[in-house]
Structure formats: C-alpha cells, structure tokens
Design goal:
CATH superfamily of one domain in chain A: Flavocytochrome C3, Chain A
Order of helices and strands of chain A: HHHH
Number of strands of chain B: 0
Helix content of chain A: 25-40%
Shape of chain B: globular
Oligomer: heterodimer
Radius of gyration of chain B: 18 Å
Number of strands of chain A: 0
Largest sheet of chain A: none
Distance between the termini of chain A: 58 Å
CATH class of chain B: Mainly Alpha
Structural class of chain A: mainly alpha
Strand content of chain A: under 5%
Helix content of chain B: 40-55%
Distance between the termini of chain B: 35 Å
CATH class of one domain in chain A: Mainly Alpha
Mean pLDDT of chain B: 86
Shape of chain A: extended
Number of helices of chain A: 4
Order of helices and strands of chain B: HHHHHHHHHH
Number of domains of chain B: 1
Chain lengths: 150, 165
C-alpha cells in the first residue's frame, strides 16, 4: 500500500513537472531559470492632456501627460509648480482639490498637507499598453440601470 | 581628485570642452553627471547628446588648470573643499544653481537656443501644455527657457522662494 502511494506521488510529480516546463505560462516566459528573458518593449506614456472620466466619484484622476524626471522630494515638488493654488493662474492647470489642504481631522491648513505631498501615491500616468488581464469593473450607473430594469 | 590624467594632452583647451574633462573630478562626476544620465539630454530617440560645455561655460579657473597643473596650486586650494562631499554639495547646490540660472536668464537662455530654435518649433507637434506656454509667454518674450525649465539636466536644490515654484 505504502509503496503504491509513493509511486503514485512520484508519477504525479513527474507529470506535473513536465507540465510546468512546457505548458504553464509564467511571467518569465520561455527563458530558463538561469537566463534573463527579453523584456517586452516599453509602452508609451499617453501625453494628450485630455482629462479622463473617473470611474467612481472618489477616484484620484489619472495624469493626462508625461511626468518623466519630474522631481518630487524633500527639496521640491515639480507637480505643485503648476498645480498649487498660487501657480494655477499662470499654468492654467487644475488646482489640487481642497482635500489636499486638510489634515486627517478635517482642519484646513495653509499649504498642502504632508500626507498629500507625494502625488504619485494616488495619481498615475496611463500608457498605451494592452491590459494583460481583462477588467470586470462595472460603473455604478450601469449597475443601477440593471437593477432598475429588473 | 581624479584629474590626474591629462599630462599628455597638448590640446588642453580643446580637452576642457569634453565630457571626460568635466567629469574628471568626483565633485562633478558623482553629483551632476550621475544625475544627467537619467535625463533626455543624455540619451534620447534622436541620439543627440548635450555635453556639459553645450550648456555651461567653463569655470574661470578651468584654463589655468588645463594650462599648467603646477601653477594652479592656490586655485586647487581655493576651489576644492567647497563641495568635496555629497553633504557639502547639497548644502551649496542652491548657490551654484542660482549662478547658472542668472547666467542663463541674462543671456536669454543662449545655450539652450543654440540647439532649440524657437523659430523651428512646430507647435502642432508639441503637447498641448508645451504649445500653450510656448505660444504665449515664450513667444511674447516675457519668459525664457530657464524660467520654466529648471532642473532639466540635474536634480534641483531646495526651491523655497524661487520664482515659479
């Protein structure tokens, strides 16, 4: 009995490992364990300056332009050189929302709250890459429509 | 100090216009040069590189060093030590940057314009943000390249109080 279990296990394992080698799609692709696979081409950042729809009211808007080498650190914040309250007249860029001036207790501060300083924590660029996996997100309006129709 | 290699150079003054010369010192190599390498002026789709001397004019002590190493003992003494650690560089960076900004402001960004000619800019091929600013403030001469494009080649110092930041 015991040897039967072992041999079944061994068989299963052999089958499985053969399978893993040939058929399972992995992120590293065909490249052997000791090799570097060829990376996919980098996709282009969309730079059209056209605002995109938000998928839900609280969604941080995505960035409609390139931000290559924009410095955001202790020394300075390139994003705020256009989007801060004082800069928007000249830049004609949208001002960061009032929430960015609030501390966590809802008090308004004179300048951007430290917890909102690093723009890239919530706002991201978009590229022309094809999504690797599908997305089943449904807009709330569409959900409501379905419900009302029932 | 890594500038020990030029004894054999007769054409020293030409040499001072090269990237090798400017990055011969660790002060330049480990700070500004390292940062330049991530930017569009180092590598780009067009394959045109802006060298240090395309954007900067040599130090007033560069000639002296290049002509005769021995004669410049006092120059070395005076110049070195001001930014020979990262901390000292960071502390002094605003001052050095200010000097470059006022130079470029005073000459209407001459060095930039040596490569980028306003008359040859095709606004229809620029992004909206770029053409909006270039066709207004730049076109009217109210602003020059360096007013809006600080930090395009290196990291910026603390910008508190700088106009436009």
């Amino acid at each position: 009995m015991k040897s039967f279990i072992i041999s079944t296990l061994v068989m299963a394992f052999t089958v499985f490992s053969a399978f893993a080698q040939d058929d399972i799609a992995t992120l590293r692709g065909e490249a052997g364990l000791n090799q570097e696979g060829a990376p996919p081409a980098m996709s282009k950042v969309l730079n059209k300056d056209i605002k995109r729809k938000r998928n839900y009211p609280m969604q941080p808007p995505t960035i409609p332009h390139k931000i290559d080498n924009y410095q955001v650190d202790l020394n300075t914040n390139k994003c705020l050189s256009c989007h801060s309250r004082k800069r928007t007249e000249e830049s004609q860029a949208p001002m960061i929302s009032v929430t960015h001036y609030m501390d966590r207790d809802g008090n308004f501060l004179a300048d951007v709250s430290p917890r909102r300083y690093f723009c890239g924590q919530c706002h991201v660029i978009q590229t022309d890459a094809n999504p690797l996996v599908g997305n089943e997100f449904i807009d709330i309006d569409d959900l409501l429509k379905v419900e009302q129709a029932q | 100090m890594g500038v020990m290699f030029w004894g054999g150079f007769n054409t020293a003054l030409e040499f001072t216009n090269t990237e090798e010369f400017c990055t011969g010192c660790h002060e330049m190599r480990e700070n500004v040069y390292a940062e330049l390498q991530d930017t569009i002026h180092f590598t780009n789709r067009s394959g045109v590189r802006a060298k240090c001397s395309d954007c900067h004019v040599p130090h007033d002590w560069t000639d002296k060093i290049a002509r005769k190493m021995q004669a410049s003992k006092e120059v070395w003494g005076k110049v070195f030590g001001t930014i020979d650690t990262r901390e000292k560089f960071e502390a002094k960076r605003r001052e050095l940057a200010e000097r470059e900004w006022s130079r470029l402001k005073a000459n209407d960004s001459l060095e930039c314009r040596n490569c980028h000619n306003y008359d040859f800019m095709d606004f229809t091929r620029q992004s909206k943000r770029a053409s909006d600013q270039h066709s207004t403030a730049l076109a009217k001469g109210e602003k020059t390249c360096i007013d809006c494009h600080k930090g395009i080649a290196h990291q910026l110092p603390d910008m508190t109080g700088v106009e436009g930041w």
